[in-house]
Every structure is written in C-alpha cells, then in structure tokens.
Specification:
By secondary structure, this protein is α/β, with parallel strands linked by helices. The protein is built from 9 helices and 13 strands. The chain folds into 2 domains: about 220 residues, NAD(P)-binding Rossmann-like Domain (Rossmann fold), CATH 3.40.50.720; about 90 residues, UDP-galactose 4-epimerase, domain 1, CATH 3.90.25. Helix content is about 35%, strand content about 15%. The strands form 4 sheets. The chain has a 7-stranded parallel beta sheet with strand order 3-2-1-4-5-6-11, with helices on both faces. The chain has a two-stranded parallel sheet with strand order 7-10. Strands 8-13 form a two-stranded parallel ribbon.
Length: about 325
C-alpha cells in the first residue's frame, strides 16, 4: 500500500489521480485534515482504500508491514503563517516521525520541500547544494530545516528509508487548488478576477529592474509535479537503483506573472486586460522577484519527460477544468 499525506490537497490529490489513472493503482491510504468546507471534493474522483485524519496516521501505521511507500505532501503551506510552533510541529516533527517509521519498516519516503527555501535567490536555485540558503519566512525555514536534517541523517549513516527524495516544488498551479484561498496560484486568481471584473490585477514592482507584472517565476503544472513524484515511486517499487536526495521540480524556465495572466485570458478566449495594484505590506521585503529551477540534477537522476509549457499547462487548466461545470480533476 502507498500512503499519501496531504492527499486531499492540490499536489497530493493529483498524485493520487496519477496513481489511479496512469499506473492503475488504488491501494492508497490518504491522510489529511480537511479544514475548508469544499476540499473534500478533491477526493470524490479518487479511488483509495482508506482515509485517515493526520493524527490517526502514526497510530494506524504501528505494527503494519504492508506499506511500501509514504508520499508526504502534508504540511502547513502558507507562506504567511506566523505561529512557528505550528510549523515546527507539522512541518518538522511530523515529517521526522514519518521518516523514522519508513526507515524502520523498509518503506520508501518521498516528501514535499519548497522553492521557498531558496529565499530571495541570492545564492541561486541549484539543488546540488542547500548550504547558505536564507528563507524569507517561517514556512520556508521549516522546509529548509527538514531538508538539512534529512541530508544529515543520510550523511552520518543514521537509519534512512530504503529510497527517499525531497522535492523543492516551485510555483505549482493547476486543478484542485480551489481551497487554498490567498495561497492559490495566480492562474486561478487571474481566472476568477477576469470573470468578475473583466480585468486581472497584478502587483506593481517595488524593485529596480523589474517592470510592473514582470516579476519572474518558474511556474510548473501540477500534473508534471505529480509525474515526477510517481517516477521516483515507480523506481523504488520496482527495486531499481534510486538516486536519493533533494530535487527541484520546476520547468527551468522563468516566466512573468504578466505572461501567466495573459495565457489565462487567452485560454478563456478573451482579450487580455491587466491592471496593477500595490503589493500588500506583509509581502514587501519577503517577496521573490525571480525564481528559476536548475533542472540538471533531476535529469541526471533519470527523469527525461518533457514538462508542459506555461501556455499548454494554463490551457489545459482553464479549458478542461476551470471552464467546466465540474472543475475538479
């Protein structure tokens, strides 16, 4: 069986979609804590064996010997979370508990890190080394802390899962993010804003060298993110040689928010119309103006599949989900 924590979230539910529809597997245990009133809809189209509250998972795992892998996507993912004690409990201690269980029970372990660990990008976005990174918020630091801890376990011959990888997800967008509110992608916000206002609002630039709306991100479609995780899972389940470590998941190509918003409106069949607004004070000074994943390490680990272009990913999202009566994947 395969455990997916955060399985009712965007990435977790699309990983389950990939397992169901691409790999014909439904021996899945989903663990999460649904707090949004409509988030359960991320699970309606999934086939899985069990659903557990996140706090039920560790007791449920006790004594089991039928778990081949844990895919740990569950976390506090808000970049504006100010309660660091919550981040420690959910993003560090809970992850360490699952790592140790996997190590002691011959299970593979794959987990979500984040491009937020790179901070303002002053030290680049290269996943070959995570030293000297300076995250801009508590969420990013909690992910960085666990990355460091995992690498330390491996380098000091502490017990490790039989295969493991951490994935530094860049700006993921796509179906099943509808519960995320302010933390949802600019693609979803753009679609909703245009429907309401016939215009899309983007942040003005507060940094020299960047025009309004030309802040750059490595936008990655959620189906690609799920496909990478599934690739590592398949390698482990087939007892192939796995490259353990921490890997970027992006496209390797930075695009602007203006490009993204334009792609959304074009996919809607509309003439692009963008207005610019001031950035909220709580984001100023903590805002990344450029992210672009270095992708050679993932390719060297054996992942050779092409990623969706921004235009193709947005088009699939808008036309096959957002413009349908049922937007869930």
């Amino acid at each position: 069986m395969i455990v997916i924590t955060g399985g009712a979230g965007m990435i977790g539910s699309i990983i389950a979609w990939h397992l169901n529809n691409k790999l014909s597997r439904d021996d899945i245990v989903i663990a999460d804590r649904i707090t949004h009133p409509n988030q359960w809809q991320n699970l309606v189209k999934r086939r899985y064996a069990h659903y557990l509250d996140k706090d039920q998972l560790m007791p449920w795992l006790e004594g089991r010997n039928d778990i081949s892998a844990i895919i740990h996507m569950g976390a506090i993912s808000s970049t504006t979370e100010l309660d660091f004690n919550k981040l420690v409990a959910d993003n560090i201690h809970y992850s360490q508990d699952l790592w140790r269980w996997s190590a002691n029970n011959n299970a593979a372990f794959f987990y979500a890190s984040s491009a937020a660990t790179y901070g303002d990008g002053a030290n680049g976005y290269n996943d070959n080394s995570i030293e000297n990174l300076r995250p801009l918020n508590g969420y990013g630091y909690s992910k960085h802390f666990f990355d460091q801890w995992a690498l330390r376990q491996a380098s000091t011959n502490m017990p490790t899962p039989r295969a493991w990888a951490g994935f530094k997800f860049f700006n993921v967008y796509g179906p099943n993010e509808y519960h995320k509110g302010r933390m949802a992608s600019v693609a979803l916000h753009s679609f909703n804003q245009f429907n309401e206002l016939a215009s899309v609002k983007l942040f003005k630039s507060h940094k020299a060298g960047y025009a309004d709306g030309m802040q750059l991100r490595d936008f990655v479609y959620v189906k690609d993110a799920a496909a990478v995780v599934a690739h590592f899972l398949q390698m482990a389940l087939q007892n192939q040689i796995c490259v353990n470590g921490i890997f970027n998941i992006g496209t390797g190509i930075a695009r602007s928010f203006k490009h993204l918003a334009t792609a959304v409106m074009t996919s809607m069949g509309k003439t692009p119309n963008i207005t610019y607004i001031d950035m909220p004070e709580d984001l100023q000074g903590k805002y990344q103006y450029f992210t672009e994943a270095t992708m050679s390490k993932l390719a060297d680990a054996g992942y050779k599949h092409a990623f969706y272009s921004l235009e193709d990913g947005v088009n699939d999202y808008v036309q096959n989900y957002l413009m349908q009566n049922d937007a869930y994947c």
